[in-house]
Amino acid sequence: MKSMWEYVCRFFGNTSKKRVGSQREILIITCVFVVLFIGMTGYLCYFTATSEQDMINNSYNSRQQILLSKNYRGSIFSRDGEVLAKTILDEEQKEKRVYPYDKLFSHVVGYSTKGRTGVEAIANYYLINTNISIGSKAANDVAGLKNPGDNVYTTLDVKLQEIADEQLNIYRGAIVVTEVSTGKVLAMVSHPNFDPNKIAQIWDSLIEDDSSSILVNRATSGLYPPGSTFKIITALEYIRQNPDTYQDYRYQCNGSFHLGNSKIGCYHGTKHGAVDLNKSFAKSCNSSFAGIGMSLDREAFSETLEELLFGEKLPITLSHAKSYVNIPTAGQDAEMMQTSIGQGKTQVTPMHMNMITCAIANDGILMKPYLVDRVENDEGKLIKSFKPESYGKLLDEEEADVLRLMMAEVVEEGTASKLSGLSYTAAGKTGSAEYNNVKGDSHAWFTGFAPVEDPEICVTIIVEGAGSGGDYAVPIAKRIFDAYFSAK
Amino acid sequence: MQEYIFELSRYLISLLVALFALLGLIALRHKPKENHGGFYAFQGLLIFAVQFLCFLNLALESRDMQYVFFYAFIQIFLFAAIMLVTMIYENVNRLLLNNMCMLLGIGLCMVARLSFAKAVRQYVIVLASLAFSLAIPYLLTRIRFWKKLTWLYASVGVTLLSVVLIFGEVTHGSKISFALAGITFQPSEFVKILFLFFLAGALWEDVSLKRVLLTALIAGIHVIILVISTDLGSALIFFVGYVAVVFISSRNYWYLIAGAAGGSAAAYLAYMLFDHVKIRVLAWQDPWSYIDNQGYQITQSLFAVGSGSWFGMGLLQGNPKAIPYVIADFIFSSICEELGVIVGICLILICLSCFVQIMQIAIRIHDRFYQMIVYGIGVMYIFQIFLTIGGGIKFIPLTGVTLPFISYGGSSVMTTMVMFFIVQGIYIRLQKEGGKHLVRKRKPQEGGNAAKENNTENAEKRDKG
Questions:
Q1: Distance from CA of B464 to the nearest CA of A (A)
Q2: CB-facing half-sphere around the CA of A476: CA atoms within 13 A
Q3: Cα–Cα distance between B277 and B271 in angstroms, integer?
Q4: Is B428 an interface residue toward A (CB < 8 Å)?
Q5: Can you tell me the distance from the alpha carbon of B267 to that of B287, in angstroms, rounded to the nearest whole number?
Q6: Is B393 in contact with B358 (CB distance < 8 Å)?
Q7: C-beta atoms of A44 and B341 within 8 A
Q8: Distance of CA B273 to CAs A174, B50, B237, B267, B283, Å?
Q9: Would you tell me which residues 136-165 of chain B have a C-beta closer than 8 angstroms to some C-beta of chain A?
Q10: Candidate from B248, B305, B360 with C-beta closest to A47
Q11: Among A23, A40, A142, beta carbon nearest to B389
């Protein structure tokens, strides 16, 4: 410290030991300002290095228009190089955005006029910037042509997207397919959908129609009661709170669970008889899980849910809704029972459910889901590539292992048996989430992965108002798994 | 062809300005007696190269001949400034001179890009300021009664500020300017110099508590008038200048601590009392939530800096006019947008180079009166830069002051130039009298005249007392 001070003194030509005037004080003030300016310059560098994209993408920033007046939007490709969106210029350099697959990618690729959604929104910065060689730029300038924006290659798989879209058929709902080890989003479907080629013509009718929420990407922004898929989380919490004894859990199911005036019934009033934790889970026994929920320490449960990103923003760039859960404080048993089986006030997005499932399949580690794989300039030169990124541990490896086997049992002898006995093994959890008070009106859920031993893909499905998950969601999962494994 | 020039200039301008800034930092190590003519001539060459590239871009992009003419005029000015000053005063500080010319050049270029009419006015004022400033070193070395006018400085200063407060024009909610014969003055700028002369005059031979309190009263009047005029930036600059000068004149750390504590208390009070202060703090903490109103200015400034990124969008390729009052208060953001953040950082370094050089000069002065003036000029100069750049990039809350030499504003550029030439005058005087063998032999106790030695003695007595 002292030698540094001497160095500063020497720098100021102040080598004499004897102090004249207020040299020391002047030095101190000088150093204070120099440090202040180093801090400010550091902040400026940090801001510049981290904020360029956010700044350009902000719709309040008029500089987007400047870029768009010089460049035309780049193309968006699937993982195997199929064009998902491109811009065609007519002779007067007027732009037209074309989506060759019409409705198929309406939500995930999105649109770029009338606001921006999907990949068009998250990759906007790359699409409107150009990195073509200076030679081409100069040539375009002379010819009075616009420069092509950079091209974006997504992680999306056309084949899986087609299967998912076809399987969801006329139903409303959503399907998310991700790669477990990387977090790559392979398919993302939301129904009802629309044709982004005609967005200008149909815009008015789309926004007037508030019954179908057609513009909402249900996969990321649709909030649904999780139904029995939530039992994954209730079970996880039970294992956490009873690490040594959860295997000794026993319950006698008579088709319903009573506490005070509240009652929880099993689906269609089925009596499951004597069950342990695995069987309660495989058979999706509401009565058993209501009891488990009542036994849990609620504060710890709340913490777990927070770790699992309930009420938080998800680590994805697509715009999305936050899932909601409320663990009631002491008392309010009726609500606690409902919450334990995924009913009540709890709401999740399919994307969130997919991420939790992925983490279970990936030894507890959540890979951040992502859609943009790389950016190339118009001449095919790589500009930027995106690597898989880990978000961190959502649960312990042992916990993930236990849940993985429990979910495998759901397929082997539980509600997802339509997935058993195939060329690959699968695991998952079904759900039939009641969404109004009329019995039997339920959304069909399935969230799961395959193969069990070394999970590769993770599929989350919700079919609105279809019925039970086992009957309506599981067959869709089977077709998607089939398509994925047959293509390998 | 044009594309190649635009693309190349983006990098070349950054490179040249960076080289200039680097040399400016290296030059801080030069000893006053050494001859570095070639070094500074090369630095001067860089100024002209940067000017050429900037105006080449402006002219090519706009296809407007006005930039070509303006370019010629600026080059004549810069050339004349460097030649005249070095010819008239051979002992002039070349680093300060070069830095000033670089900043003025970039400033005029940027103002021309934002508003050509205003650039012409600015040019005329810069020219007049130089003509006036050229006489300052001469006056400083000839006139000996500067120290005797202490109370005149204070009364003229307070009067000027009061006149503005009472009769001033309200612009953007602040009363800071005053129109006379069609020319708008911003007296708080000129009063800075008077204020420093007052402080130096009042404190150079007596820093008893009584004296300090008396000056605190006068300084307080200055600051309060400025606060009432809602010229918060200037109020802060005066306050910081006062505390800093009292600190070095008394060498008493308690004054520094008391100043910091008093300043914080006053800031808190202002925050509680005035809505416009609250709004500025609010807009600083979270501008994005108030993007449509209170946060509009700062977010637009951030857009400019962020969109420009390291190498900028190129002159005339961005949209800096989206920032309200860009030409005076946010010119730094517009430079970052079009010339790039690297150029912005280099400008910060050039300003720092000026500041450190001024402080190095202050350290060598034995006459406490002049030492305090030079030091005060350094502190006020650098603090103003901190306020305007820090405010523009959301490092600190916005106060709305100009960037010296670069922003549009006649009073600002004239004041800063006068300040620089006061430093030059004192520097020249230092080289000439007493300073000569003082510098050569580095035996400060032998240098100086009788009065100066008395000074030192006085100072030492005070230390003990």
A1: 14
A2: 36
A3: 5
A4: no
A5: 20
A6: no
A7: yes
A8: 54, 47, 20, 10, 17
A9: none
A10: B305
A11: A40
Interface A-B, measured as beta-carbon pairs within 8 A, has a size of 141
The confidence band for B182, taking pLDDT boundaries of 50, 70 and 90, is: low
DSSP-assigned states of every residue in B239-297: HHHHHHHHHHHHT-HHHHHHHHHHHHHHHHHHHHH-HHHHHHHHHHH-GGGGTTTTTHH
Nearest to A55 among B307, B368, B445 (CB): B307
Q: Are the C-beta atoms of B133 and B80 separated by less than 8 Å?
A: no
Structure tokens at B307: 């969109």
Helices B253-273 and B232-250 cross at an angle (nearest 10°) of: 160
CA-nearest residue to B296 within chain A is A60
Smallest Cβ distance to B3: which of A21, A66, A134?
A134
Which of A161, A15, A43 has its CA nearest to residue A101? A161
What's residue B77's pLDDT?
A: 93
Measured CA distances, A364 to A298, A304, A356, B72 (Å)? 22, 13, 9, 68
Q: How far is Cα B366 from Cα B415, in angstroms, rounded to an integer?
A: 25
> What gap in Å lies between CA B200 and CA B206, rounded to an integer?
10
* Contact predicate B358/B96, CB 8 Å: yes
- Distance (Å) from the alpha carbon of A357 to chain B's nearest alpha carbon: 35
Q: How far apart are CA B186 and CA B178, in angstroms?
A: 6
pLDDT higher for A83 or B218?
Answer: A83
**Of the candidate ranges A39-43, A92-96, A404-408, A453-457, the one whose mean pLDDT is the lowest:** A92-96
Q: Is B459 on the interface with A (CB under 8 A)?
A: yes
- Which residue's entry shows tokens 């008070």? A437
DSSP B149: G
- Reported pTM: 0.76
Residues 93-152 on A with a CB inside 8 Å of B are: 134, 137-138, 141-142
Q: What is the pLDDT of residues A175-191, one digit of tens each?
A: 999 999 999 999 999 98
State whether residue B335 sits within 8 Å of chain A by CB.
no
H/E/C letters for each residue in B299-320?
A: HHHHHHHHHHCCCCCCCCCCCH
Residue of A nearest to B442 (CA): A16
Which element (helix H / strand E) includes B137? helix B116-142
Structure tokens at A172: 């409303």
Chain B CB contacts of A42 under 8 Å are none
Distance from CA of A404 to the nearest CA of B (A): 43
Structure tokens at A109: 């690729």
**Best residue of A33, A47, A50 to probe chain B, by most B CBs closer than 10 Å:** A33
CA dist B230 and B280 (Å) reads 12
User: Shortest CA distance to B110 belongs to which of B347, B380, B297?
Assistant: B347
Q: Where are the domains of chain B?
A: 2-432
Cα of first residue to Cα of last residue in chain A, in angstroms, is 64
Q: Which CATH superfamily is domain A221-371+390-486 in?
A: DD-peptidase/beta-lactamase superfamily (3.40.710.10)
Residue B12 at interface with chain A, using a CB cutoff of 8 Å: no
Instruction: Indicate the residue of B7, B310, B459 with minimum beta-carbon distance to A48.
Output: B310
Q: A57-71, A262-276, B53-67 — which one is most confidently predicted on average?
A: B53-67
Q: Looking at CA atoms only, how far is residue B318 from chain A in angstroms? A: 7
The answer to whether residue A15 neighbours chain B at the CB level (below 8 Å) is: yes
The sign of the torsion formed by the CA atoms of B218, B223, B224, B225 equals positive
CB A47 to CB B365 under 8 A? no
- Which segments of B78-220 are extended strands (E)? 169-171, 174-180, 183-185
Q: Which residue of A has its CA nearest to B443?
A: A16
Alpha-carbon span B181 to B179, nearest angstrom? 7
